[in-house]
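Pasting two entries for a bug report.
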Amino acid sequence: MNKKGRLNKDEGSSGGGWEVVYSGFVLILLCFFILLSSFSTMEEAKIMRFVKSFVDAVGILPGGVKFDSGSTVLPGSADMVDSQDKLAQIFSELEELRQNLKKENDIMVAYSSKGLVMRLSDRALFDVGVADISPQAIPLLKKVGDIIAGNSFEVRIEGHTDDLPIKTVFFPSNWELSTARAVKVLRYFIETVGISSKRLSAVGYSKFQPLVPNDSYEHRARNRRVEIIFLNADGKNDPAIGAQ
């Protein structure tokens, strides 16, 4: 009698184990579907940023690639923003222009906290030490102007130099040179392309916002540049010279 009662008791205690296992399985399924639901409502851009950040964190840089300082967090890519975002379309147009003109070394397109940045080396637009736009740069600026005219973003043109001093009749310092170059590009967009002056502004930063240290010829060449920035909402708050 005691043996039978003990057997029944053992069977009862072991028989309840399936309920614990079943409950755990249901909870796992519930978590899985919650996870799927959260991914389905996330913006594609956020997922892409997570994937790129993870790959960059655990990946190995290809040979010859180095980290550079600057405000651009990640290299430009059309999948870094929502595929429906207007900036993504502008990015694609600028990238296509860069490739068609075969100026990969003189043009770079990237996203920054200011907005979408098109970075042009000084040699793509000007001769050494002057602010007049070179004839060779006209086709490039005309196409960029057409892209600007095709959207409603406010655009700021920034002039930058290296740290080598300049002192001429027209340009007593790099402040004047960087500002004059930015204004020349701005005036081309207004007077030749016909873009409204209300959408454009220009500013010169002289040598004080370098991309890389001014410690070699190559680095100084990178720092001499004009940046055409399609401003996002935050970027509009930065000071600049308004077009008149």
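Entry 2 (this is the one that rendered wrong in the viewer):
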Amino acid sequence: MPYPKKLLNDYETVALDLHPHWWYFSKPAVLLVASIIFGILARVYLDGGDEEAVSYLAIGLIVFSALWLAIRYAKWANTNFVITSDRIIFRSGVVSKSGIEIPLERVNNVLFSQSIFERLLGAGDLLIESGGEAGQQRFTDIRRPGRVQNLIHAQMEVNEARRFQVPTATVTDVPTQLEKLEGLLERGTLTREEFEVQKRRLLDG
């Protein structure tokens, strides 16, 4: 499910809302497939009491792995890695909830890592260094972490422009500020909606 809009601040927009990569399901999925194959082979190659005992074992493994997969899906559906115009949010939990919020202005560095296998899958980890008490936060099973890293940097630039450039603009430098905003729009750093909001603030100020 998407990140709840009611938890966003006023004028805050969502740039990215991700669930974990599908690799998150690998362990229970592999166990489920292996259990099914094990059950089929038991019926083909065994007979008598051995077949019955092994069949019960296979059924137990199938039920266990199916439940594990269902629980994993529930956790996956309720885990969100979100980038907004103001912060980075990680939220997880089906019944009880836990989360991390990092304001963009406190982000010092964003690193990503991928093994060769993860590059083939399009998955990886993100390490975010911030000025908060935690210092570093690692997020695993992120889809296309390189692109996510670039998006975080782009949102940081937009956030900085909004916090420092627009509020300090005076009547004499409004044209200069408009040119900067247009440059951000052309580079794709600002969306059209964000550009119009900043433009109205300049003109109204």
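Dev reply: Rendering is fixed now. As a check, the viewer should reflect this: The radius of gyration is 24 Å.
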